[in-house]
């Protein structure tokens, strides 16, 4: 009679640690397990000798979603704060570039930027400070459009409309809407993934309010 010795390898999942974390899928704090998958040498299907680690992940115990380990570092409050700061900066860059679209920067454009920044973004600066920032700006139009594209997926319609509205107000502040300014407005709308109808509706709303 011949005896067969059955041996091989297989992955075995074990729990390294557990705790609470902010689950992106549940959008709230939930219990998690830090899981490790290792390859084991098996004899008669029994895992005996641990070999290499195949992977690690965080598993939500509520929705069973799995994530990379850095999800444990995610703080929704800090993430929201960072996004708001980025939104403020990108919007200011848009306003500055709009003011620089033509050969001359008009005082009324600077005042419009100051007023819009204070009321819509919570940022205060004098016309003199704003003018210095505009003249010192080194960010290219391409970089600003790329930044708009990056944040577009995380913005709701109100956020997108706010940026477009601010840019249009600056464009109109000098009393004329040039072809270059209109091209930039179109580029802003495209970067923010807004339809032509949506862009037109925002512009019409701005003009209507200015004429009241």
Automatic annotation (TrEMBL):
Source organism, top-level taxon: Bacteria
Q: Name one Pfam family in it.
A: Zn_ribbon_15
Which InterPro entries does the UniProt record give?
Answer: DjlA_N, TerB-like, Zinc_ribbon_15
Annotated Co-chaperone DjlA N-terminal domain residues: 96-198
Which residues belong to any copy of the Zinc-ribbon domain?
A: 22-70
The molecule here is called: Zinc-ribbon 15 domain-containing protein
**Species, as recorded:** Ardenticatena maritima
């Amino acid at each position: 009679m011949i005896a067969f010795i059955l041996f091989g390898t297989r992955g075995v999942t074990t729990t390294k640690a557990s705790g609470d974390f902010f689950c992106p899928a549940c959008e709230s704090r939930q219990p998690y397990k830090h899981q490790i998958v290792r390859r084991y040498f098996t004899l008669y299907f029994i895992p005996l000798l641990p070999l290499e680690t195949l992977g690690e992940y965080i598993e939500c115990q509520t929705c069973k979603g799995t994530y990379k380990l850095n999800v444990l570092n995610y703080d929704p409050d800090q993430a929201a704060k960072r996004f708001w700061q980025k939104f403020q900066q990108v919007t200011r860059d848009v306003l500055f570039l709009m003011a620089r679209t033509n050969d001359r920067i008009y005082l009324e454009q600077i005042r419009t930027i100051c007023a819009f920044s204070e009321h819509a973004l919570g940022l205060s600066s004098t016309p003199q400070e704003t003018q210095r920032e505009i003249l010192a700006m080194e960010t290219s139009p391409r970089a600003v459009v790329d930044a708009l594209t990056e944040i577009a997926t995380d913005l709701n319609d109100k956020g997108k409309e706010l940026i477009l509205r601010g840019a249009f107000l600056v464009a109109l502040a000098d009393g004329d809407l040039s072809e270059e300014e209109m091209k930039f407005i179109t580029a802003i709308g495209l970067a923010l993934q807004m339809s032509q109808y949506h862009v037109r509706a925002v512009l019409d709303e701005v003009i209507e309010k200015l004429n009241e």
